[in-house]
Design goal:
Layout lengths: L7 E6 L5 H13 L14 E6 L14 E5 L6 E5 H8 L1 H12 L6 H6 L1 E3 L2
Parallel strand pairs: 1-2, 2-5
Antiparallel strand pairs: 3-4
Helix pairs in contact: 1-3, 2-3
């Protein structure tokens, strides 16, 4: 018995939408929660493309939210606001970090993130 699994491609237009709504929709599609044959231990054959990331609707209070990373070394905590991150790396990186935070923290997170494409 052979099954033909074709990669399903979804496109999300981020123009005029809030950051959390776009990220939630993308995370749900990446996990395959919209399919009837959803299993949480497999990476679905799905590609999610988010277009118009630079036209994302971000409210003023959200721009002061803090993104932080820690290297593990003393004094290795790096703190950055959303506004600074968007200027430095673009809104594509902001969306990627937001979606990554909504995906499960297991060995499937990295392969799921490879199926996400964000364009400005």
């Amino acid at each position: 018995m052979t099954t033909d699994s074709q990669k399903t491609e979804y496109t999300i237009d981020a123009a005029g939408k809030r950051l959390g709504r776009v990220a939630t929709e993308a995370a749900s599609l990446l996990m395959g929660k919209n399919t009837p044959d959803f299993v949480r231990h497999q990476n679905p054959d799905v590609t999610v493309k988010i277009v118009n990331a630079s036209k994302l609707d971000v409210r003023e209070g959200k721009e002061t939210d803090i993104y932080q990373s820690y290297s593990g070394y003393p004094g290795g905590r790096r703190v950055e606001t959303l506004e600074h991150l968007a200027k430095r790396r673009g809104y594509a990186e902001v969306i990627k970090r937001t979606v990554k935070g909504m995906l499960p923290k297991n060995k499937l997170q990295k392969p799921m993130m490879h199926n996400l494409e964000v364009t400005e």
